[in-house]
Amino acid sequence: MPEFAIVRTVADLRAQVGAWKRSGQRVALVPTMGALHEGHLSLIALAKTRAERVVASVFVNPTQFGPNEDFDAYPRGEARDAELLAGAGCDLMFAPGVAEMYPQGFSTSISVTGVSEPLDGAARPGHFNGVATVVTKLLLQCGPDVAVFGEKDYQQLQVIKRLVRDLDIPVEIIGAPTSRLEDGLARSSRNAYLSETEREVAGRMNLALSEAVRRLKAGESVERVEATGRAALERAGFQRIDYFEVRNADDLSHPGPGTLSGPGRVLAAAVIGKTRLIDNMAVE
Amino acid sequence: MPEFAIVRTVADLRAQVGAWKRSGQRVALVPTMGALHEGHLSLIALAKTRAERVVASVFVNPTQFGPNEDFDAYPRGEARDAELLAGAGCDLMFAPGVAEMYPQGFSTSISVTGVSEPLDGAARPGHFNGVATVVTKLLLQCGPDVAVFGEKDYQQLQVIKRLVRDLDIPVEIIGAPTSRLEDGLARSSRNAYLSETEREVAGRMNLALSEAVRRLKAGESVERVEATGRAALERAGFQRIDYFEVRNADDLSHPGPGTLSGPGRVLAAAVIGKTRLIDNMAVE
User: What is the domain-level CATH number for residue A156?
Assistant: First the structure.
């Protein structure tokens, strides 16, 4: 098994990445919040095809959780995460503490208008400012050639692509396809919250999304597809539906009520029990 | 005379800076809005003591001007700027157009709380968001080892130091002492707006500031020093005084009305005719 190390400070991270770069090796970063599952490991696998060295960050970022969200409950297990990363061929785990990321006096925030405003931006105020700021920090701390993010968080991926372009961060952002369980449920650390009954309900979200994709491709109107999808989630047993929407793929603007013309994305967020799940699919 | 070049795109800037860095040369960046004067050239001179190569950016950044400010009137003269930079030993001038800096769809903004809020932050809403965003872009476009900013814009310097620390931008920020004319007036591109009579009034601001420093060192209260300074600017003929304030040097928090204890800074902004001037001095 190759060497694997854990670092906790930006200085140590930079020392190792700097040494790799000076020896001509490309470096990929895979930012995570830990609680790793096969979805994350597929990001590591993709990263390994794009760089000689792969760094995974493990940091549950407090600033992207709202006051009534699951920051405290969010699953944590560093030893297991480290073992999974090492096994997947990751070279370095960057696991900073909150004080390393947000020292006393921290007062800078990055916001992205447009793409961050609908969907999770509306449902989770402040969430994408937290994401934009911490991802910018991670990218500038590590200085990777490429960084890999899952399409499971599709809006997050678009927000990150936008800010990287806008701020001229010298890195290539790569989206990785969503990893799914047997019934199609998107892999997510939050699936760990689900009871057996809730797990069954959760498995219906991806079906509603693929049905929506099928209908859009058949020429059904955006308006009808959204109504049908919403109704399907309700029937499935979700207790609150934050959104079930068809959007233009690149900037997440709304395509209007008629037939979808360009590349689209169907995105959903809904709550079952105490668990909020999101998923999305491409309409190509 | 050494070689001197002008580039207008981020790609060309990075190609040149990348070549220098690969050959082991340190690079300094001096961001300017053009209309160069001896103050800027003193920044170049300081930069040359800290790096083998010096890049100066010349960009009048629209997003840091308010709707009723002097963006259109701000003096521009690229040929003269280039000549001065070449003469001062600057290696590269980066003079991007607005579309290179803010292409279609641009939607990211950086804000810094605390240090950016009083003084010019209060007098010029949105100004420091514009500064923070463009400076971050320039730093990430160029990737210098050090960047030099004038202490003339002392609050701007503190905002930049804060955001560089907070976002982990890998660069050292250096403040350069304010360059002054014979009567002590701080050199500024906006001095070009002044009529002969206004020029005389302008020369009193630095006197009011050094008088304030003297009084603070003698133990006079912050409250009295501020009142005296304000009165001095009024008597001198300034038509509007935005502020004349004593602040703690590092975070620009207000030291309270009594005697100043730690390192301080006296800062003033006032309008004469159509020209708004700022200046500041250290209380050590």
Answer: 3.40.50.620
A35 within some domain? yes
| Residue B65 maps to a domain | yes
Query: Region A56-72: what's the mean pLDDT?
Result: 96
Residues 6 or more apart from A253 whose CB is under 8 A from it? A114, A247
Min Cα distance B166 → chain A (Å) is 6
| A159-191 core/surface letters (b: 16 or more CB in 10 A; e: else) | bbbbbbebbbbbbebbbbebbebeebbbbbbbb
Do residues B225 and B158 share a domain?
Answer: no
Residues of A in contact with B132 (CB under 8 A): 108
Please tell me whether residues B249 and B171 are part of one structural domain: no
The whole model's pTM is what?
Answer: 0.97
Spatial separation of the C-alpha atoms in residues A146 and A143, rounded to whole Å: 9
**Residues B247, B255: contact at Cβ < 8 Å?**
yes
Residue A246: beta bridge partners? A266
CA A155 to each of CA A5, A116, B104, B202, B213: distance values in angstroms, whole numbers, following the listed order: 32, 7, 20, 52, 53
The verdict on A129 and A242 lying in the same domain is no
- Residue A184 domain-assigned? no
Q: Which of B37, B40, B127, B254 is catalytic?
A: B40
Give every residue of chain B whose pLDDT is below 50, as ranges. Answer: none
Q: Are residues B207 and B110 in the same domain?
A: no
A201's tokens: 């309900």
Q: Give A54's strand partners.
A: A28
Q: Which amino acid is at B125?
A: P
Q: B87-108: per-residue pLDDT in tens?
A: 999 999 999 999 999 999 999 9
Q: Structurally, how many domains does chain B consist of? A: 2
Please state the ipTM of this predicted complex. Answer: 0.96
User: Tell me, what's the pLDDT at B2?
Assistant: 64
CB hemisphere CA count around B130 (13 angstroms):
16
Confidence of residue A3 (pLDDT cuts 50, 70, 90): confident
Is A181 part of a structural domain of the chain?
no
Order across the sheet with B5-7: list the strands: B5-7, B92-94, B53-58, B27-32, B146-150, B172-176
Nearest to A222 by CA among A257, A266, A247, A249: A257
Q: For the domain that residue A211 is a member of, what is the CATH number?
A: 3.30.1300.10
Domain that holds residue A40: 5-176
- Is pLDDT above 80 for A175? yes
Same domain, A164 and A233: no
Confirm or reject contact between B113 and chain A (CB < 8 A): yes
Q: In chain A, what residues touch B114 (CB-CB under 8 Å)?
A: 105, 107
| pLDDT, tens digit (0-9, with 9 covering 90-100), for B111-134 | 999 999 999 999 999 999 999 999
